[in-house]
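Lab manual, section 2.4: Encoding a predicted structure.

Procedure: take the sequence of the chain (335 residues), apply the prediction step described in section 2.3, and record the output as C-alpha cells. A sample record is shown.
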Amino acid sequence: MRKIFFSGLFSVAHLVIIQSAAAQSTMASHSSSSCSERLGGQIWIEGSEFVMGDDTTYQEEGPAHPVTVSGFWIDAHEVTNSQFAEFVEETDYVTVAEQSPDPADWPEDVPAEFLQPGSVLFTPPATGQLAENWWSWVAGTNWRHPEGPESNIVGKDNYPVVHIAFEDALAYAKWAERSLPTEAQFELAARNKRNSRYAWDGNELAPNGHHHANTWQGSFPMENNPEDGYPGLAPVGCFEPNDYGVYDLIGNVWEWTSNWYLPKHDPADSLNPIGPSQQESFGSSNGDSAARVIKGGSYLCAENYCLRYRPAARQAQESGLGTSHIGFRTVLSPD
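Recorded output:
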C-alpha cells in the first residue's frame, strides 16, 4: 500500500497540477564530453570509525556521535537510465510512477488528477507565481519521461535515473543481488576520508570558485546561475571522484538509503547502525506516515534554501513517491 505524504520538500499546497503539457525543461543541454566514460562497477570502502551526524546545521542531523561501519562495496556512480532500462527489459518491472494509484492510499479530498499515473516535477515559478510553487504533479511523468509526458531519455543513457520510489530502487537492488546503502554506509563513503563539514578541503561550497558537486547557484528557486556548468541534472561522473574513487555522492540527485527516518540519531546505534524501526518512524514529524532517509542533496540545493550538500545532511522522504531529483545507488556487503 502506498501511503502518500509530502515531507519538508513538498506540500500539497505547493503543487501545481499539470495534466497535459510537459513542464519547462531543467536538464542541461550542453555536451557531456568532460564526464567520465568509465561507467559501472563498484568501489571498495574500507571499514572505519567516524563521527556521524552534525550538531551545527540542522537539528535532525544530530547528535554527532562515533559509529563503526564494516567495509563494503558501493556503486561508483548513481544508477543510470541505461542500467535501469536493462533491469526493466529483463524483468518487465513497472515503476510506481507508471502505475495507477489506489484511491485508498490518498486522502478523500485529493484532486482527481493525483489519481493518474505520474510523478512530481520541479518547475521553476513563472513570473507572477508565488515563489514557493516549484513542485508540480505531472501526469505521465516517470523515469522514461522525466520532464513530463512529451519528454524522453533519448541520448541520456548516462544520466541518473529519476522518478524512482523506494520500492523501485529496492527492486533493482535485489535484481542486482545487492542492497541499498544504510545511512551510515552512505555517509562514510560521502565523507571522503574526512570528518569535516564538506566532503572536500575548505569550509566552503566552492572553495576558490571550484565546484565539487552539482548544486544550485543563485537564489533558489527564481535565480539559477549555473556556475558549475549544469543548470539542471548532470550525467553521472561529471565532477571529479572523491578520494575513494566514487562519483556524485554529494549533489546531482538525492539518493535513497535503507533507513527509516527519525529527526535525530541514536548514539547507542553505533556498530553498523541500521537506524530506527518502521514503527518508530511513524509520527516523527512526517504526518501519519513513515519515511525513509535520503542523502547527498541534489542540483536543487542552494545556499539560501537547502544546505544539504554535505555528508551529514539527511532528509525525510515518503517511500512511495519519486521526484525529478531523487535517484539511488547500491552496495554489496561481504557475508
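Check your result against the sample. Residues 44 and 73 are 4 Å apart (CA to CA).
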